[in-house]
Amino acid sequence: MTTSGTRPGWTALLNRPSTTSVLLFVVAVTAALSFAPDFATRANISSMLGDLLAPAIVLLAASLAMTGGVADLSVGSVLGLGAVVYATAYTASGSWQAGVLAALGVGLLAGLTNGGLALVFGVWPLIATLGMLVAARGLAKVISDGSSVAAYTPELSTALKTTVGPLPVPVLVVLGLALVCSALVRRSRWGTHLRATGGDEVVAARAGIRAGRVRLALFVLTSTAAAVAGCVQVMRTGASAVTLGEGTELYVYGALLIAGFRLAGGGHGSPMTAFLSLLSLSIVLNIFRLRGMPLPLGDILLGVTLLGAVSLGWIRQRTQRHSPEPEPEPEARPNAVPA
Description:
Layout: H1 9-14, H2 17-35, H3 42-67, H4 75-93, H5 96-120, H6 125-144, E1 149-150, H7 154-160, E2 163-164, E3 167-168, H8 169-187, H9 189-199, H10 201-206, H11 211-237, E4 239-240, H12 248-258, H13 271-290, H14 295-322
Antiparallel strand pairs: 1-4, 2-3
Helix pairs in contact: 2-13, 3-8, 3-11, 3-12, 3-13, 4-5, 4-6, 4-11, 5-6, 5-11, 7-11, 8-9, 12-13, 12-14, 13-14
């Protein structure tokens, strides 16, 4: 017998972002094993996960930012700018530490600029970060003079390519951080403040949470993480390409939307489900590469995925809005005493 107020099975499944991410992962792996025989080789898995490292760093920060109501479209360009600044500073000084500090400074400045435009001047965050997307990409081309900048450090490259079996150690570290952040968002006071800021700023203010400061910190966190990801990518490969970071924002936010986050802020996703969605997209793109398919088809796939993720989020909201509320349990009453 069905309990009153219980949702149909398909509705409950649709409203679980974690289930959606797991199903996408299962489908991606099944397709890879069926259509790309070389997928399961150690070399391919290690290479694919290594390429996932920089986007995963950005994704982890962006998942926290979207929980707090901040979506930054400039992450790909800031990643590319951070890479160019790191490589240029490293070449000039001979010190990778100086390169990292320079890139961190650029990331911090980009985050403060985005946050200032959005929170102080009232510019819609997506417009503010879209402007930063264009500006950071142009600045990277000016600094690099439109060419790649070499910055190879054998020790760093070797460390970042260290593996346990086919699994790169840095990716395992990011995975561990995703698990920790997921637990903090759901079970800590800090996570409660973050979710309150992303859910309803008025309610957050009544609870004594300074939503403006929280969001400014999230803008800075996202841009700084993107700059760090740019440094990591250059450390791995030994050079900063002019096109580095292009399309990263679609890749990252496609995974976040699939995982249940909303561009307007909040949602029911977690850093861990977002990481799983990003891994699934990476597997699908890896199938394209192994099958020798044209690279533009991968861009089409990302675009379709993004549209599908937005549609899925809209369906989730509609389903939740029209689902019947469960009836409250009847209160226990004391036995009536006869008059």
